[in-house]
Write a structure and sequence with these properties.
This protein is of the alpha+beta class. Helix content is 58%, strand content 13%. Strands 1-2-3-4 form a four-stranded antiparallel β-sheet.
């Protein structure tokens, strides 16, 4: 029976309570017939905020994956003559010599002005020297994903020697926009890598603890309590400070990944343990055991798949914690270090009041990127957690 027919029955019989009960049961019967994953997807798509957050997450990972192509310049390309150059607004239309308005993206050039009192150099917009901007321009050479040699950039100045700093420049005259794009790759990927390590530890230890119980459960729970009782920031500081300065940036990246994931598995392990304690006595587990299934098969083929949706929701909510942890360590100078570019490394340049007062964009843009990523993961994780119970009202 369709929903419209049931609602018509409500009006005809004027029996709202029983009719709504029939409608609810009909919906549950329809839900049980189409499978859990389609139900989860259907319920998730009805949550607009979660869908929008998911689109933002995909956009951030797309930016990280195509960083070389999307960045107007190389992240370490320094031009000292443009130190702390302010952001240049992008203009889409310009006035032709005949007085008509034409489409032609450009940014205004810079002119250096010196304060006669403070003897401080500053940049002033020079309207007489516009810098033409175009899409798919030829710029500095790079290797896409480290493999494909290319010189085409999505956006940039037509004349590569002219300055274009849409988000400003840092203390070495490097383009903040390009560094922000490259930093997206490192900061977003380290969140996924850290969550992967936490996922493996949390699921395996939680499943073993909940399935076997007894002495094994006691030992694992005491270990979880010890790890959870450790102060997070001091532990991260101590472990990160122990990294030798002679290590390569790639080695430091993997070690920082392990550090930020060291404390992230305990909550997931406890949740998985609780679910295993509740499910190990269910009929389908008993039937599989009587059918000759071994302990490994019971854990990974029968019980664990029923927790997949819940685990995905928990993991999604754990990613922003990893991103904030990496950003905090790098900002404090004990995480990732140059030449690696991440959002936390970028914010190292804004550790004093003078820099924030004269070049606030060095802190604003990476901080906004962190806030955007964290909010997107939280909204998407909340939506996925609600959708993980597709049979709920």
């Amino acid at each position: 029976m369709s929903d419209s027919a049931l609602l018509a029955a409500v009006v005809a019989d004027d029996e709202e309570g029983p009719a709504l009960t029939v409608l609810r049961r009909s919906r549950h019967a329809a839900a049980a017939s189409i499978g859990p994953w389609r139900l989860i997807a259907s319920k998730l798509l009805r949550q607009r905020l979660a869908v929008a957050a998911g689109c933002v997450i995909l956009l951030l990972y797309a930016i990280g994956g195509l960083a070389e192509f999307l960045a107007p310049a190389l992240p370490d390309a320094a031009r000292p003559q443009y130190t702390y150059a302010p952001p240049q607004p992008l203009h889409l239309f310009r006035t032709a010599p005949n007085g008509t308005t034409q489409f032609g993206p450009y940014v205004e050039g810079y002119r250096i002005a010196v304060d006669p009192v403070a003897l401080r150099r500053s940049f002033v917009a020079d309207t007489s020297r516009p810098v033409q901007v175009a899409l798919f321009v030829r710029g500095p050479a790079y290797r896409l994903w480290g493999l494909i040699p290319m010189t085409t950039h999505l956006i940039g100045p037509v004349v590569s020697s002219q300055p274009m700093y849409l988000l400003g420049a840092d203390r070495l005259g490097r383009d903040v926009l390009s560094r922000l794009v490259y930093g997206t790759r490192v900061s977003m990927s380290i969140g996924l890598a850290g969550v992967t390590v936490s996922l493996v530890l949390g699921v395996v230890l939680g499943a073993v603890s909940g399935f076997y119980g007894g002495v094994v459960d006691t030992l694992i729970q005491r270990a979880i309590e010890v790890v959870s009782a450790m102060p997070t920031i001091p532990l991260w500081l101590g472990l990160a400070a122990a990294i030798p300065l002679t290590w390569s940036p790639l080695s430091v990246y993997f070690v920082i990944t392990l550090i930020v994931s060291l404390l992230g598995w305990t909550s997931l392990a406890r949740e998985v343990r609780g679910r295993f304690l509740a499910l190990r006595g269910e009929d389908f587990v008993t039937a599989a055991r009587l059918d000759g299934a071994g302990e490994g098969r019971l854990i990974f083929r029968h019980i664990l798949p029923s927790l997949t949706s819940h685990i995905l929701a928990v993991v999604t909510l754990a990613v922003p914690t990893m991103i904030v942890a990496e950003t905090s360590l790098s900002f404090l100078g004990i995480g990732l270090k140059p030449p690696v570019v991440s959002w936390g490394v970028m914010m190292q340049d804004a550790q004093n009041i003078r820099t924030i007062a004269t070049a606030p964009w060095l802190l604003i843009w990476p901080a906004l990127a962190v806030v955007l990523a964290v909010l997107a993961f939280n909204f998407f994780g909340d939506g996925l957690r609600d959708a993980a119970d597709p049979y709920g009202d």
